Amino acid sequence: MNFSARFSVAVFSICFVAILHSAENPAQRAETVRKTPGLIAFWDFATREADGEKRFIAHVPEGAQNVYPLDAGNYVKDFWGEGRSATYADFPLLGRGPFGDAIQIGNEQDQDFRPFLYVARSRLHDTPLDIKGDNQSVTVLVWAIRESGNHALAGIWHEGTDLKQKSTEAIRKVERGQRQYALFAGLNKTGSACGHVSENGASSFTNRYALHKCNSAATSPAVPADSPTGEIDTAWQCFAMTFDHKKQEIAGWLNGEAGDRWLENPKRDGLISYAYNAWLQGHLHRTPGVQPGEDPDFPNDQFYNPPEEKPVSVKVLSQTGKVRVELREYPYTRVEVTQVKNLDGDWQDAKRDLVALRLNPWWYPHGIYQPDKETGGPFTIGRVIHSAKSVGFTGWIGGVAVFDRALDADEMKALADLRIVE
Question: What region, left, alpha or beta, does residue 253 occupy, with left being phi > 0 and alpha being psi -120 to 50 degrees?
């Protein structure tokens, strides 16, 4: 190979490496998020107001005027009248991250200090970020390093301060729940990506909490926030949730993978037992007359009966004489069915019991809660307003993005891969 040819190859190699490098820098990664269709808002914690308070602002679609600047708040001070005000100084910066910087949500020792960043309802109501109503889908992604905890990462999820419990005995400001959509770091499955959606802003299945939620199959590790630089830079995770109103599914995604998750024996689970009862009451209600175990006062809008018209699979568990027990798997439930043989020799269903419930994806047949300006909650990052003073999630948050549609698997994988910082 002559000098000219070797020189041309060398120049091409240098340019190619430069292109690869530029595609992996924070600005290029941020651009990938911005160009993904359906983006409503994307906070990279490196972009701020040009003047004034220099608050973090969001990347928004071209032509959008509301850039959703984030205020600092302490919900304990706001609702209990206790503790100090929060400022940006309460959110230490890492100085690097997938998109250039990251904020720390710390393990605050003062029970009257629970800081978060937020967009007030007055600044988001009826804007594109206020995703609500029927025929609406949503995706939330948070690039984070989880140090501890399983609670909120980001979303519109004011849990309410009206729950009667010890922590609310001295509360000064009582408000009903104002939940719409949010992403959590696991809740009942710590470290998973847990998506939450509410149809009424308040509770589900007669429980005091909202229970329409999913959990990704995979879980994130716990990484100390003060780990060495090399460990921090390789510890980023991408938590995400989608609600697809057409499929009627909420799904949790960790690092671009959703995966199946089932809960066996939901009757025995502390919270999901309420979904079990909602399933049972729905079936009993459809049988004429009041059936044994039926609660005539159970609210009809809280029945939980995922489609069970056609089983995915059927397995005979036992058969003796005139009694047969089958396990029928449906898209979102596994039902144990006891059959008896009638006088004509045909098998008839005599008893049904829900023995497993699918947690990912979770069947959700409703729209998203539609509050008015006075009864709607803020969009918060790092924590949500609720009736307890628990610490919640701790760790680093390096990016938060909201889309007004359910991203597909390829898109989720592409955005999740942006967490990889070389």
Answer: beta
Q: Which domain holds residue 51?
A: 30-258+363-419
Q: Are residues 302 and 388 in the same domain?
A: no
- Cα angle 197-201-206, degrees, rounded to a multiple of 5: 90
Which among 329, 327, 349 has a CA at the least distance from the CA of 339? Answer: 349
Residues 330 and 372 grouped into a single domain: no
Q: What is the average pLDDT value for the chain, to the nearest integer? A: 93
Together in a domain, 245 and 334 = no
Domain assignment present for residue 346? The answer is yes
Domain identity same for 381 and 339: no
pLDDT digits (tens, 9 = 90+) for 387-402: 999 999 999 999 999 9
143: left (phi over 0), alpha (psi -120 to 50) or beta: beta
The residues with which 145 forms a beta bridge, in sequence order, are 396
Instruction: Examine residue 2 and state whether it is found in any structural domain, yes or no.
Output: no
Judgement on whether residues 304 and 352 belong to the same structural domain of the protein = yes
Residue 280 parent element (H or E): helix 273-285
Q: How many distinct structural domains can be found in the chain?
A: 2
| CA 28/CA 418 separation, integer angstroms | 10
Whether the predicted pLDDT of 4 surpasses 80: no
Q: Using alpha carbons only, what angle is made at residue 369 by residues 64 and 200, rounded to the nearest 5 degrees?
A: 165
Question: Could you tell me which residues come within 8 angstroms of residue 181 by beta carbon, excluding any fewer than 6 positions away?
Answer: 131, 138, 140, 155, 156, 157, 195, 196, 197, 198, 241, 243, 368
In percent, the amount of the chain with pLDDT more than 90 equals 91
Residue 15 in domain = no
Name which of 287, 221, 303 is nearest 254 in CA terms.
221
Q: What's the CATH number where 408 sits?
A: 2.60.120.200
Q: Label residues 80-93 b or e (16+ Cβ within 10 Å = b).
A: bebbeebebebbee
- For residues 151 and 279, membership in a common domain is answered with no
- CB-CB contact of 152 with 115 (8 Å): no
pLDDT category at 24 given cuts 50, 70, 90 is confident
CA pair distance 122, 376, nearest whole angstrom? 9
Residue 384 and residue 337 in one domain: no
- Which residues, other chains included, contact 14 with Cβ-Cβ below 8 Å and sequence gap of 6+? none
Q: How far is CA 109 from the centre of its chain?
A: 26
Burial string for 288-304 (b: 16+ CB within 10 Å, else e) reads eeeeeeeeeebeeebbb
Last residue of one domain, picked from the residues 318, 337, 359: 359
